[in-house]
Amino acid sequence: MSTPSLLILPGDGIGPEVMDEVTKVIDWYGAKRDLPFDVSTDLVGGCAYDKHGTPLHDDTMAKAQEVDAVLLGAVGGPKYDDLDFSVKPERGLLRLRKEMDLFANLRPAQCFDALADFSSLKREVVAGLDIMIVRELTSGIYFGEPRGIFEENGERVGINTQRYTTSEIDRVARAAFELARRRSGKVCSMEKANVMESGILWREVVTKVHAESYADVELSHMYADAGAMQLCRNPKQFDVIVTDNLFGDILSDAAAMLTGSLGMLPSASLGAPMANGRPKALYEPVHGSAPDIAGQGKANPIACILSFAMALRYSFDQGDEATRLESAVEAVLAGGARTPDLMGPEGGTPLTTAQMGDAIIKALDASL
Ligand code: NAI
Ligand code: MG
Fold it and tell me: Which catalysed reactions does the entry list for this protein (predicted)?
């Protein structure tokens, strides 16, 4: 096998700061695990706009299509707030997702024991939580036509359209079932088939894909509103949840907060398999560019580091190494290491971004 290729797009604000720590981890795998990556780095977001007048240069887009995986920091910041919509930093990210056709957004919600008291829920409800929300990312109400604000009978009407085709549901369902096979073998599909035709079709297609190809996986269905309640009441009943773009946006944010800080949350967006069998893939922390703390060494690099762990697992078939990295993070937290966002009322001295990265490298060394 040739050396796997990785395109790194640090972006704006704390993006480059947290990515520096990921780079240490990537270098560690090359040096200590004989797992080198062919890394190239480029611009996305506001910094790309500053240099090229566009938040994503065509050359960068082309490169993203060729590599085995893209790892992105964060984009945006107040400096770019007044830019025209068409060149806003976020447009760079949206272009990547759209042109790479990344239809399955994987959002894990995992609660490290050491941080269980950070959750707004009781420790026993969230400690040990490890669920995965698979959100359809390229269709549904955010894209459906007709859309817009129109005049009708003398007043204005805002319109969006929820629209799903069988093939769009089919492919994201398969992604969820494949994941479940590598986890605890359970999928819960969420829609509102009680009030939405697109939900009826969603349930039909998921049921069919399951019966035809994934009968070994346990499938259940839930209305998305009931699912929201169950996520708060007893989140550990779930393993993989698959849902549409809108419900997935909301449910994944809610699930994320079960686990505490935004600085801890990774994500992956996967598309169709490439010629080499690997899925098109973009990995990024859930958080943004955090302008309020940028440049101060206060950013928590764990979300971005855990995004690289997801890349190891889902793009590079290195599940054991992904687990090693996640365990290193867990060990560091269990040892009391905290960036400022993870400081509880008991206080203490927080680590800087770089110190947290170094602590994780030390834990990786200790794992050998
Ligand atoms: P944000 O996620 O950047 O920050 C929200 C709050 O969480 C802030 O108080 C921030 O300091 C804190 N925070 C975020 N990440 C952290 C980390 N790793 N460690 C410690 N604390 C962390 O969201 P916000 O403030 O709404 O947006 C700021 C900018 O980021 C905006 O320009 C927005 O458009 C952009 N953004 C970009 C995203 C992306 O690149 N995927 C996603 C969300 C927002
Ligand atoms: Mg959201």
Answer: (2R,3S)-3-isopropylmalate + NAD(+) = 4-methyl-2-oxopentanoate + CO2 + NADH
